[in-house]
Amino acid sequence: MKTIRHLTILGSTGSIGESTLDVVMRHRDRFHIVALTANSSYEKMLTQCRDFQPQYAVMLDEDSAEQLDVEIRKEGLETKVLSGVESLEKVASLSEVDTVMAAIVGAAGIRPTFAAARTGKQVLLANKETLVMSGRIFMDVVKQHQASLLPIDSEHNAIHQSLPHNFKGDLSEVGVRRILLTASGGPFRDSSLSSLEQVTPDQACAHPNWDMGRKISVDSATMMNKGLEVIEAHWLFEAAPEKIQVVIHPQSVIHSMVEYVDGSVLAQLGNPDMRTPIAHALGYPERIDSGVTSLDMFKIARLDFEAPDFERFPCLELAYQALSSGGNMPAILNAANEIAVESFLGGQMPFTAIPSMIEQVMQTISHKDVKTLEDVLTADAVARETAREWLTCMA
Ligand code: NAD
Ligand code: MG
Question: Does residue 126 have its Cβ closer than 6 Å to ligand 1?
Fold first, then answer.
């Protein structure tokens, strides 16, 4: 007998959200969608409501919620439409929900992801920003409320798959020497440094291997994404920064590796398609079909590896700095990066100004300890304000 999982998908209209629904669609007998959420794209949400008939649909934006509600009633659907951040938290913590896919992009995902952890859900974590901003606090909440955490980020999901089942948080206890975190190097791995000044948002979002949302695509182009992932790996696997080696692997076939003290290196491979880690986490511990095609080894033919270039990708260095400073710094790094990416995508500053803005913001704000989620949100707000001031000065 298959047990039915009752799901809330936070960020269902995004790239991860849509891939999640694609996997769910293949297993209607295993999953029941209780709630879907989005920012403002109510037309996409309407289609999802038709297809999955959730009990709740939450739009962060109130006007979009009203428009959705009108359409839902016109069609005679029974979905209840809600709006606002509190409603995101509500549907992440409903007693009838056992599993929450946390796939909102950016710091906006932190509150509902915490709400899911506080109510002991199985949290499928795509929103890496939660761990970057509040690693220790979030991991403590997960433990305290007996929530469980499965990583969706392909690298962390690969590491999870390459670790032994008895891993309880102490890497040396299970004989791990280090983690090899792979990175494609993004679209500008080989571009001349001088050409980066002229890069357009569309060029930055054209990732060679992965099809993703625009924010994470820009993060991949600056390699801030890998920096955020180093911090994410640090918290998920209790790995000291020096035990995490970033490896450039342009084909994105190896999704990450774990090296053991006996010299064995275990890797997880597959086509670069997020439905694999999503299906892994949705079905866990069982394996379920994801719709991803077989890896064609003959077509791939070769796998390449390079060391990361910190001069080309200053964001990677900034992330390591934020991790070693700790306290409010990772939240500041993340917030400054979100404003920088948004400004670059909006045509307000060049691609190469992204690391400059982040560095400036990190230098302007003093280091502080963070003990609560509120402390983290304060650091986030201060960093956003500082970043906006920097932008005004530059204009
Ligand atoms: P996306 O931009 O495609 O989708 C984001 C989703 O969040 C949408 O449903 C949007 O409506 C919702 N949203 C946006 N702003 C919101 C707000 N302020 N409040 C509430 N909801 C809001 O993003 P994505 O690429 O799917 O990424 C989602 C998360 O998954 C990110 O944290 C990203 O780092 C992570 N991730 C994505 C990929 C990928 O392949 N796309 C891979 C690994 C990790
Ligand atoms: Mg990743």
Answer: yes
- Ligand 1 centroid–CA 275 distance in Å is 15
Q: What is the pLDDT of residue 393?
A: 87
Note whether 36 and 108 are same-domain residues: yes
Are 271 and 290 in contact by the 8 Å Cβ rule? The answer is: no
The alpha carbon dihedral of 86, 87, 93, 95 has a sign of positive
Model pLDDT, residue 1: 67
CA of 235 to the centre of ligand 2 (A): 15
State the closest ligand 1 atom to the C-alpha of 212, by its place in the atom list counted from 1: 41
Q: Give 10-residue mean pLDDT values along the chain (395 residues).
A: 92 98 98 98 98 98 98 97 98 98 97 98 98 98 98 98 95 98 94 91 90 93 97 98 97 98 98 98 97 97 95 95 97 98 96 97 98 98 97 85
Among 107, 136, 151, the domain boundary falls at 151
Confirm or reject: Cβ of 153 under 6 Å from ligand 1: yes
| Closest ligand relative to 15 C-alpha | 1
Q: Quick check: CB of 209 below 6 Å from ligand 1? A: no
Question: How many independent structural domains does the chain possess?
Answer: 3
Atom 9 (ligand 1): residue with closest C-alpha?
Answer: 11
Q: Is residue 139 part of a domain?
A: yes
Integer angstrom CA distances of residue 52 from 28, 46, 48, 172, 324: 9, 10, 6, 44, 44
Q: At 34, give phi and psi (nearest 5°).
A: -90, -45
Range of the domain at 132: 5-151
Atom of ligand 1 nearest to the CA of 129: 32
Residue 287 lies in a domain: no
Q: Are residues 187 and 263 in the same domain?
A: yes
Establish if 163 belongs to a structural domain: yes
Secondary structure (3-state) at 213: coil
